């Protein structure tokens, strides 16, 4: 899959913006989604939905936050869970879907599963990579460009 420089820049801005949200928690479906966000540089609080074993337990534990940023997958299951989360929590706290929409826009719909964001990271350096020309956006330590 071809990755453009504008996608890389957009994802950097996306992660910076996501990191700036205080009193918020990002909800993803599972561990691989969580790992992908961390590899991209996300340093905020992440909640893995499937660890709660049910919507009621999940909803009860989210009330300590002011904002819930929903980043569930863009597949049938993810859309279903998103609608259930909204219906359960919209009256208790701010449910933010703007980051989900922004991610679809940045990646031009290529990313349907949050775990797929890991394709924007080189496996060895855990850094963004502009794969079209195989050049690293961040120079490797100890080497000059």
Model description:
- The chain is α/β, with parallel strands linked by helices.
- The chain has a single domain (5-136), classed as 3-Layer(aba) Sandwich (Dna Topoisomerase Vi A Subunit, Chain: A, domain 2), CATH 3.40.1360.
- Helices cover 37% and strands 13% of the residues.
- It has five helices and six strands.
- It has helices spanning 5-19, 31-39, 55-61, 76-89, 98-106; strands spanning 24-28, 46-48, 67-70, 94-96, 129-130, 135-136.
- It is globular, with a radius of gyration of 16 Å.
- The relative contact order is 0.19.
Strand order of the largest sheet: 2-1-3-4
Count of helical regions: 5
> Which stretches are poorly predicted, pLDDT < 50 over at least 5 residues?
129-145
Report the C-alpha radius of gyration, rounded.
Answer: 16 Å
Q: Could you estimate the helical fraction of the residues in percent?
A: 25-40%
Mean pLDDT: 84
* Total E-strand runs: 6
Give the domain tally: 1
Whole-Å distance between the termini? 25 Å
Quickly give the CATH architecture.
3-Layer(aba) Sandwich
- Characterize the largest beta sheet: strand count, sense, and whether it forms a barrel: 4 strands, parallel
Please state the overall shape, judged from the principal axes of the Cα atoms: globular
Highest-level CATH class: Alpha Beta
CATH topology description: Dna Topoisomerase Vi A Subunit, Chain: A, domain 2
Structural class based on helices, strands and sheet pairing: alpha/beta
- The percent range for strand residues is 5-15%
The helix/strand order is HEHEHEHEHEE
